[in-house]
UniProtKB/TrEMBL annotation:
GO terms for molecular function: protein-containing complex binding. It comes from the Bacteria. It comes from Streptomyces toyocaensis. Pfam families: NAD_binding_10 (PF13460). SUPFAM superfamilies: NAD(P)-binding Rossmann-fold domains. InterPro entries: ComplexI_NDUFA9_subunit (IPR051207), NAD(P)-bd_dom (IPR016040), NAD(P)-bd_dom_sf (IPR036291). This is Nucleoside-diphosphate sugar epimerase. Transmembrane segments: none annotated. Residues 8-132 form the NAD(P)-binding domain.
């Protein structure tokens, strides 16, 4: 039986990954700021982090924050993993971090580099956006009388359970380096996703496409965050909405 540490194990992805690994018979430790007995703030490190990685065979690094601090947190984790003799470090990243000059993406790319240079056997998987994230964004936008959406931007959302399945496979295997990207089954315009959400939620909002400026927006508009050639996911956004909101969605 392998001992696997999952950072961010209480998050959207981490919960599914932890369940899958435990179902496969592994001892799984969940590290997050509030999960006992391994309640650790990775940005602070300390003895609690050393305790969490002691005797661990593989670390799956899912913890992240768009508010910053990922690089410091990852440096602390990698240092502790080296001290503990961890043999495999798996990192979940995002498609397009090397193509879209967006602040959060730059941080994810920097962490990829830290993982690659860690001296530990490593695996990096990049995926497109989770259905859950797209839903949260649309729910936030729908609080306004009019939903402002970035003009001419598409997305390729993927089901988080499928990502968890793939991560579990990678965590149970040998270090594989940068593996093939993983994208959702459909590339759709953002306003198409918004209209699907509004139908499923039974809400009425005007949808307005707003042109933006900047290098990041240009890269998103060019599809730098998409992986149409790696559309390996099977669960669609409409199916996700039906499960989550309990209403059938007609894609149009």
């Amino acid at each position: 039986m392998t001992t696997i540490l999952v950072t961010g194990g209480t998050g959207t992805l981490g919960r599914h990954l932890t369940e899958r690994l435990r179902a496969d018979g592994h001892e799984v430790r969940v590290l997050s700021r509030h999960a006992q007995p391994y309640a650790v703030d990775l940005r602070e490190g300390g003895s609690g982090l050393d305790d969490a990685v002691a005797g661990v065979d593989t670390v799956v690094h899912c913890a992240t924050s768009p508010r910053g601090g990922d690089e410091k947190a990852s440096r602390n984790l990698i240092a502790a993993a080296r001290r503990a003799g961890v043999g495999h470090l798996v990192y979940i990243s995002i498609v397009g971090v090397d193509r879209v000059p967006f602040g959060y993406y730059k941080s994810k790319l920097a962490v990829e580099r830290l993982v690659e240079e860690s001296g530990i056997g490593w695996t990096v998987l990049r995926t497109t956006q989770f259905h859950d994230l797209v839903l949260r964004v649309l729910q936030g936008m729908s609080r306004l009388p009019v939903m402002p959406l970035p003009a001419r931007v598409k997305d390729q959302p993927i089901d988080v359970t499928e990502v968890a399945e793939r991560l579990a496979e990678l965590a149970q295997g040998a270090p594989a380096g940068r593996v093939d990207d993983m994208g959702g089954p459909e590339v759709r315009t953002f306003d198409s996703l918004a209209r699907a959400y509004l139908r499923a939620a039974g809400r009425r909002r005007a949808v307005v496409r707003v042109p933006l400026r900047g290098a990041a927006y240009d890269a998103f508009r060019a599809g730098g965050h998409l992986a149409p050639e790696r559309a390996v996911g099977t669960g669609t956004f409409d199916e996700f909405l039906t499960r989550r909101l309990g209403a059938a969605v007609t894609h149009r």
